[in-house]
Structures
1.
Amino acid sequence: MTPTSILPGLTNRYLALDVLRGMTVAFMIVVNTAGDWSNLFAPLAHASWHGFTPTDLVFPTFLFVVGNAMSFSMKKLQEMNSGAFFKKVGKRTILIFMIGWLMSAFPFYDVTSILEVRLFGVLQRIALCYFFAAMVLYYGGIKGAWTFSGFALLGYWGIMYFFGDAGDPYSLTGNAALKLDLALIGPERMYGGEGIPFDPEGILSTLPAIVNVIAGYLAGKMIQNLGNTMKTLKNLMMIGLGLVIAAYLWDIFFPINKKIWTSSYVLLTTGIDLILLAALVGIIEIKNWKGWTYFFEVFGRNPLILYVLAGLLVTVLSLVPVGGTTLKGIIYQNFFTSWLAPKTASFLFAFSYMLMIWLIGFWMDRKKIYIKV
């Protein structure tokens, strides 16, 4: 088994990028495994529609760190002929997409219904964004990446405005992304958590999400070109602050919204990611404060397998019947709700679960088991 990961290319010379990746995976596990979804601290819940919470930063940051890794791996891909390029990138895309789709079908009680499960999801979006970002960079390079990003963000705004309902083109029931998904996917294979068939990882909203990957690529190239220096830190910080300001100005016309992945949301999340990365460069690379980083490096070395394992294991815990409840219910009641306030219990269950997944990652790291897709 090759000692690498789904996000190959990062090295100890760029530890800040590794740590950002690990922090993202850890936070993803926490926000995905609440003990009780009806009892969440506000920062650990997504914005109900327009707006932004810390949880809304997690997914775009994972796309951003995919782009970081591509800033190292694209050089080798760009040296390939188009046939070899499509074989390499296409294989990875299909594998990640299929893993996400099969996770939706787990635990496969009814094999005949597998084709009826939700088509898209988190890993599927990661797969598609990786594929199209790689295409843009392979054929267009950095100039093409900038051009695509501008057209994608402005074009998405135009599509959503002109093809959404005239009264409120950015509403849950009237947005163009929903209309396209209903026409091409069908309501039975879409997410139902909003009370209606609506997929926050659907077809049209994947377009602006590609820009989050490209932004991560450009940030990675900047760090490689300028090195771990104060100039890099200042550039990342200034660009990040500029994007955050631009996002809130655009919010007036095209609201910040994770669930339809608005263009203002892309600017905001990219800006925050750049600020976080600048802080990590300063702390880790310039100040050389590295004693705390290993915890997050463990998550960053096997991000896909640990994310998938976290999703599958909590599903199993929720399905195993024990005395009129489930194994998860027994654990939650006996170790958390019996002595903690509801929201605290819900959070500590998720945090403890993340630590358990970390222990698995720690064991894998000690055994030098690194899984590449």
2.
Amino acid sequence: MRPLTALLRPAGVLAAALLLLGGVPLTANAAPGPGVGWIRVGHLSPKVPPVDVYFAAFGKPEKVVVRKAGYGAVTPYSSVAPGAYTVSMRPADAAASSPPALSATIEIKEASAYSLLVFANGPGGGLKGDLVQDDLTAPAAGSGRVRVVQGSAALTPVSIAGPDGKTVASEAAYGVTTPYIDLPEGRWPLKLTSNSATSESTVDVKAGSTTSLLVTENGTGLKTQPIADGATLPDPPKLGVETGGGGTSSDSLPWWAFAALPVLAALALLAIRRRPAHDR
């Protein structure tokens, strides 16, 4: 693994679309069925500029599937056939032949969902990928399941307390994904503490939902972003790469092109509406 040395660039429209799509808490979760696995990728390296994410079945040529994903971006899930895959990150717009800042081989099992979370706590300050399995089983009746992904490197460790002092996370170091806990349905006010820094936030817990609460840096403070574990769609779009388990290659647009279309269309319509009438 090698550190990224590219200059900082704007995350771009696509990364914004990923945040909009991946950062909306959902009211219900779903799980992949037999013969399918789900994978998503999170960029949680605060000082690392936007990256392009490559994906391929193990031993097959890589294809870029996400462009210019910035810090805090978490992609929606994608469906893949069970098997071994290679995930790589390169500085945004770098040549596909350039050495990757991160390259990891992961194993996707059927009927399972995974988050590949990329932190800057690898050897020598390089990138490190942490593949965690997302628990999509139903929580207790009237409750939702919540875990914390600690993505703040400057303000660490982080403790999170709910109402009546209930502990959601205790002294979570950077790069830690805590175990799930069940919380009763409702809007939970949260207090985040890291040494002398404190922040306040909320999380909406829906009955039957499973949520990863992403903690990231916001200038000199902390912020949280709820990410739904599972999706309202029972079968997310498939990656436009040759799949594992003997799948065939696809020349169709990759999943993020379809996922981003509604957001990009809305942005384009907004831009048109803002133009002077004589220029339309």
